[in-house]
Amino acid sequence: MEQLADLGDRHLALFSHQPFFIDEPDPLELSYWTVDPEGREGLRFLMEHPNLRMIASGHLHQQRAREYGRTGLIWCPSIAFTTREELVPEMGGQRQVGYLEHMFEDDGTVATRMCTHPGFENSHLDDVIKVVYPFAG
């Protein structure tokens, strides 16, 4: 908390495994896809911080960029595999294996670039589930 008080005119970026929310922080319903609503409410002071410029997350194995106010909501894909709609519903993301590169500017803007590698294969979880999770049913 004291670090936030000492931010001055510096900007803030948050990184979380799961997205804080899909499109809007409310309603507060429990979802496998996002941070638990109780936990998210405990972080609302961060989500509403005036210096916050980006919340970056993964978990959904999709790349997506949206804005919530002046904050970028950036989902990072996986470098291992993506998912089909039967497993992860359509949420407006790009299902492409890769990674993101974030460039932070002094004025608070964040530019994000989707990166791939020629050696990356756009496999799907259901194609490799026995390799990734050998004890899965």
Please summarize what this structure is.
This protein is α/β, with parallel strands linked by helices.
Q: How would you sum up the global shape?
A: globular
Order of neighbouring strands in the sheet with most strands: 1-2-4-3
Q: Major sheet: size, sense and barrel closure? A: 4 strands, mixed
Task: State the secondary-structure class.
Answer: alpha/beta
So how many helices? 4
Tell me roughly what share of residues is in helical segments.
10-25%
Strand content: 15-25%
Model regions low in confidence, pLDDT < 50 over at least 5 residues? none
Give the CA-CA distance, first to last residue: 44 Å
SSE topology string: HEHHEEEEEH
Overall mean pLDDT stands at: 90
Please state the CA-atom Rg, rounded to the nearest Å. Answer: 16 Å
| Structure summary, number of beta strands | 6
Tell me what you see in this structure.
With 137 residues, the chain is α/β, with parallel strands linked by helices. Helix content is 16%, strand content 24%. The chain has four helices and six strands. It has helices spanning 2-5, 37-42, 44-47, 125-132; strands at residues 12-16, 52-57, 64-68, 71-75, 99-104, 110-115. The strands form two sheets. It has a four-stranded mixed beta sheet with strand order 1-2-4-3, with no helix packed on it. Strands 5-6 form a two-stranded antiparallel sheet. β5 and β6 (110-115) form a beta hairpin. The longest helix is centred in the C-terminal third of the chain and has 8 residues, at 125-132.
